[in-house]
């Protein structure tokens, strides 16, 4: 596999930066990072292995997409064969589309595998609802890849690596959207892609109030709570950030425990990256058992309290 001359990295979340930089270090001869408004992120980028960091001052009224012209000017000025990498957040997907227009670059989204061969960037991603893997090749000199969570193991910071950021002047877009008000979002923030243990709930949960029982179990085993699509988008009992599936999060934990989840392909595509899968379902013919490493045929309303009791007694 050949390496790309220049890899450019941006993340609107510091927590996703180590993963994307790790991918950049694998694919590029030189990794440069754009940072918007956080001196701490500049330090982190150098510690993670960035060769150069470009700093853009942040203004609260600007959306992330508004920085496309500023970034595009630097990338175009560098010239040569380039790859731009970003995590699969909503803001980064919007930014990627604008950069694609500004730079005449091919854009790949939800990429789970990247390589550089024969002077071109190749990517793979799930298609047809997770039933197949699509292979794509970008023909343009500049390629843009929006990375699915868990594609790369996060780079470990080395605080001995330091450097000064190159400060960029902000380029105002010809047409821009400005934020006039920000309100706190209800619900907790979660990053399932970084969790070592994940517990997922599905239609087996009869009432929203019963989620507290599973939250108690999660606290006992130090796990994050996720869910299937009906819980997040049908019942709206949980945030979209906790939805595990082809159009949601695709975590790669050491342990994934599915409670009352039937195991449809759209969900299992998101969960199949787990090292071990444990399923609890009262239907012995549920598809989830075809994917599970371990299975319990039983009512989760009896199994979960029993597990909580067992784990708590061991802790005592």
TrEMBL record:
InterPro entries under this entry? DHS-like_NAD/FAD-binding_dom, ETF_a/b_N, ETF_a/FixB, ETF_asu_C, ETF_asu_C_CS, Rossmann-like_a/b/a_fold
Q: Which UniProt keywords apply?
A: Electron transport, FAD, Flavoprotein, Transport
The domain of life for this entry's organism is Bacteria
Please name the Pfam families in this protein's record. ETF, ETF_alpha
Domain Electron transfer flavoprotein alpha/beta-subunit N-terminal: start-end pairs: 7-183
Task: Give the record's family classification.
Answer: Belongs to the ETF alpha-subunit/FixB family.
Name of the featured protein: FAD-binding protein
Organism listed in the record: Desulfobotulus pelophilus
């Amino acid at each position: 596999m050949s390496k790309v001359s220049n890899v450019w990295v941006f993340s609107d979340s510091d927590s996703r930066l180590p993963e994307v930089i790790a991918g950049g270090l694998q694919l590029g001869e030189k990794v440069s990072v754009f940072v918007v408004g956080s001196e701490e992120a500049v330090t982190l980028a150098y510690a993670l292995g960035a060769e150069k960091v470009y700093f853009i001052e942040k203004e609260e009224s600007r959306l992330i997409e508004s920085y496309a012209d500023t970034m595009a000017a630097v990338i175009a000025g560098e010239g040569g064969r380039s790859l731009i990498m970003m995590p699969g957040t909503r803001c980064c997907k919007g930014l990627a589309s604008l950069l694609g227009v500004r730079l005449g670059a091919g854009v790949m989204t939800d990429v789970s595998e990247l390589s550089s061969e024969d002077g071109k960037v190749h990517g793979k991603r799930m298609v047809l609802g997770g039933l197949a893997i699509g292979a794509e090749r970008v023909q343009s000199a500049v390629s843009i890849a929006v990375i699915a969570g868990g594609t790369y193991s996060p780079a470990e910071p080395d605080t001995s690596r330091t450097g000064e950021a190159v400060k960029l002047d902000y380029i105002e877009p010809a047409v821009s959207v400005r934020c006039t008000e920000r309100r706190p979002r209800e619900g907790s923030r979660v990053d399932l892609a970084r969790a070592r243990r994940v517990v997922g709930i599905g239609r087996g949960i009869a009432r929203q109030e019963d989620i507290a029982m599973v939250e108690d179990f999660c606290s006992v085993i130090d796990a994050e709570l996720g869910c299937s699509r009906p819980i997040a988008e049908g019942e709206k009992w949980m945030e979209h950030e906790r939805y595990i599936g082809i159009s949601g999060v695709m975590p790669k934990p050491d342990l994934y425990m599915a409670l009352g989840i039937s195991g449809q392909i759209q969900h299992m595509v998101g969960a199949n990256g787990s090292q071990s899968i444990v399923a609890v379902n009262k239907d012995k013919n549920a598809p989830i058992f075809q994917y599970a490493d371990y299975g319990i045929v039983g009512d989760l309303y009896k199994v979960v309290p029993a597990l909580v009791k067992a784990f708590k007694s061991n802790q005592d």
